[in-house]
Write a structure and sequence with these properties.
The protein is mostly beta strands. The chain contains 6 helices and 25 strands. Strands 14, 15, 16, 17, 18, 19, 20, 23 and 24 form a 9-stranded mixed β-sheet that branches. A 6-stranded mixed β-sheet has the order 5-6-13-12-8-10. A 4-stranded antiparallel β-sheet has the order 4-7-11-9, with no helix packed on it. A hairpin with an 8-residue loop joins strand 1 (11-16) and strand 2 (25-31).
Length: 393
């Protein structure tokens, strides 16, 4: 039908059906060298386009202190120039209180029809915020390469945004691509408020297993791992409340305590550590609402044996009645660790359950002011409990 195409480039490109930057349809027309009326037109292959996908590097293996990587239920919808199986995926989210992040990414081929294996990646955030910077903002790369993205956020407030990746041809080769700003990756970043209204306190200075695990918890809350007697615990919380409420130089001026975990020994109607025991009769004076200020949605995790034993007449119920906040405590057994992740795990867990194990009748209950105790179950993950509190901000 056609004579030899020879060494000349005889491809004519035209753009039709333009609706947005991800739905350009390109056509290729091949003409006979000495008879231009003899031609063939067809949808053009993307052989000269740089079409990558940018993904978080090995997310299931990622581990960094103070960071939690989790897959969300939100789905990325990338450029239609990419292969169908590369366009949509569940977005990963980095949850952290850190203000400086270094995150690893990989560049992979996103379309089988692409023969141009190098180009430029541009990085943009989904919100206009002068307090957030990313570096690099662009880079030259190719399929199979990896890079590290630095993110910094100034201030102490919560930041919630997406980081998006866009690809362009580097225009450096003879096979210059025409697509621009091909959306090729997305990740979510959630920078939480700095840890100033969340507390974990051990009434025992030695605390056996708790002293080790509070190291994990320290990334999430302000931890005091020392012995307190009844007056010492009350005085500490009152001082913290005063600092939160009346520090004009802090963004948290006027804030209240939103989470408190207490680790101690316990029997029905009293808890203790290195100092004097704290009984039900001490609670009203120790947790006076005039000196210790909890937010209305605050949660207290009482990690003491038998804190909820006795149910409506228990130590936990009296604590809920006095503070007016939700108290979670074990009834009818002691408290012991069930599952604890390693210190630098990407998704830390600190779960507690009945000391006597599976055969125990002990369960955790939720106690509220003047309410009926509600069964939660045999285990509670106190880091997950804290994450729920932070997410509600």
């Amino acid at each position: 039908m056609m004579s030899s195409l020879g060494n000349r480039k005889m491809r004519q490109k035209s753009l039709i059906g333009l609706t947005n930057n991800t739905s350009i349809q390109k056509y290729m027309t091949i003409k006979q060298l000495f008879n231009s009326s003899n031609s063939l037109s067809a949808p053009e292959l993307d052989m000269d386009e740089f079409l990558p996908v940018v993904r978080f590097k090995k997310p299931s293996e990622y581990s960094a202190e103070g960071e939690k990587l989790a897959e969300t239920d939100k789905e990325a919808s990338l450029s239609t120039h990419l292969d169908i199986d590369k366009r949509k995926y569940k977005i990963w989210c980095v949850n952290t209180e850190k203000r400086k992040l270094k995150l690893p990414f990989t560049v992979k081929k996103g379309a089988k029809s692409s023969w141009d294996d190098n180009g430029k990646i541009y990085i943009k955030i989904s919100t206009e915020d002068a307090d957030i910077t990313v570096s690099p903002e662009s880079l030259d790369t190719k399929y199979g390469e990896e890079f590290e993205l630095s993110i910094e956020a100034a201030g102490e407030v919560k930041k919630d945004f997406y980081v998006d990746f866009y690809a362009n041809d580097d225009k450096g080769d003879w096979n210059t691509g025409e697509y621009e700003d091909v959306h090729c990756g997305r990740i979510k970043i959630r920078i939480l408020r700095l840890q100033k209204v969340y507390y974990a306190i051990s009434l025992m200075s030695e605390t056996d297993y708790r002293s080790r695990n509070l190291r994990t918890f320290r990334s999430y809350v302000k931890v005091e791992n020392q012995g307190f007697n009844s007056s010492g615990l009350g005085n500490y919380l009152a001082t913290e409340s005063e600092n939160l409420a009346n520090n004009p130089d802090s963004e948290y001026s006027g804030e209240e305590i939103r989470y408190l975990a207490i680790f101690s020994h316990g029997i029905e109607n009293q808890i203790w550590g290195d100092g004097d025991s704290i009984g039900k009769s001490n609670i009203s004076s120790m947790f006076s609402s005039e000196s210790i200020h909890f937010s209305g949605d605050a949660v207290i995790f009482l990690g003491a044996c038998n804190g909820g034993t006795g149910m409506s007449s228990s130590f936990a119920q009296e604590l809920a009645n006095t503070t007016g906040v939700t108290v979670i405590s074990m009834a009818d057994d002691g408290v012991a660790p069930v599952k604890e992740s390693k210190w630098r795990a990407s998704s830390p867990e600190m779960s507690y359950g009945p000391k006597m194990g599976k055969l125990s009748m002990g369960k955790f209950y939720k106690f509220t002011k003047g309410g009926v105790p509600v069964e939660i179950g045999k285990t509670v993950d106190i880091i997950e409990l804290l994450d729920t509190q932070k997410a509600s901000e």
